[in-house]
Amino acid sequence: MAAARPPQVASRRMSEKPAWLKPHGKPWGVSSSQVVYDNPWITLTEYQAIAPTGRPALYGKVGFKNQAIGVVPLHEDGTVTLVGQNRFSLANYSWELPEGGAPMGEDPLDGAKRELAEEVGLQAADWRQILRMELSNSVTDEICHGFLAMDLSPTKGEPDETEDFAVARVPFREALDAATAGHMPDAITVALLLRTHHMAVRGELPAALAALIL
Question: How wide is the angle at C-alpha 113 spanned by C-alphas 110 and 114, nearest 5°?
């Protein structure tokens, strides 16, 4: 087996947007709107819209009342803790990183700490926000905040009354391989595992930990 490739010493994180990252054309316009469904978690609004081309268009948008949260619980031995659960929308069983929601007025970090404790009974001394994502920006306004949690220790936590979790602690590289092979297709999980690997490659993690996951 080949030795792990050492991470780069310095990070080359993008500090400013390149010139091509700028808006083009006209934004969407709205002639009228109507809320057609509402519950404690989402609102569905129908719009009579005006497309950037000037043409009229019918548009529906799902508005979320919580921020999405995802956490990578990365242990010092290079393992990561995952949760398995039955998902309603696709009627499938899904292995994922710990995830959940935080009210719009709450600091996303507080939500991440709560979800980590509730879902897998862990707390972390080292927290880093590593990604912000628009999860499905063609039809929803849902924003996700992704965190890396390190220096982990057990804590007490109780899942929501509708949640029934299995918990597994697996090598990070095995989790990443499972995600990229399509066995863990949850979008937040795929994105955050890839971002964590990217951080290891770019020298943004402790060298000993990066060597374990590369």
Answer: 85
Three-state SS at 172: helix
Helix (H) or strand (E) holding 84: strand 79-87
Q: Structure tokens of 9?
A: 């010493």
Mean pLDDT of the chain: 92
Q: What is the pTM of this model?
A: 0.90
**Rounded distance between C-alpha atoms, residue 60 and residue 33, angstroms:** 9
CA distance 124 to 116: 9
pLDDT at 8 over 90: no
> Phi then psi for 210, rounded to 5 degrees?
-60, -40
Is the Cβ–Cβ distance between 187 and 193 less than 8 Å? no
Question: What Cα–Cα distance (Å) separates residue 76 from each residue in 41, 61, 82?
Answer: 36, 42, 15
By the 8 A CB rule, do 172 and 200 touch? no
Q: What pLDDT, on a 0 to 100 scale, did the predictor assign at position 12?
A: 53
pLDDT of residue 4 exceeding 70, the answer is: no
Distances (CA, A) of 174 to 56, 58, 81, 102, 183: 48, 44, 12, 29, 11
In DSSP notation, 91-122 reads: TEEEEE-SEEEEETTS-HHHHHHHHHHHHH-E
**Segment 141-193, tens digit of pLDDT:** 999 999 999 999 999 988 788 889 999 999 999 999 999 999 999 999 999 99
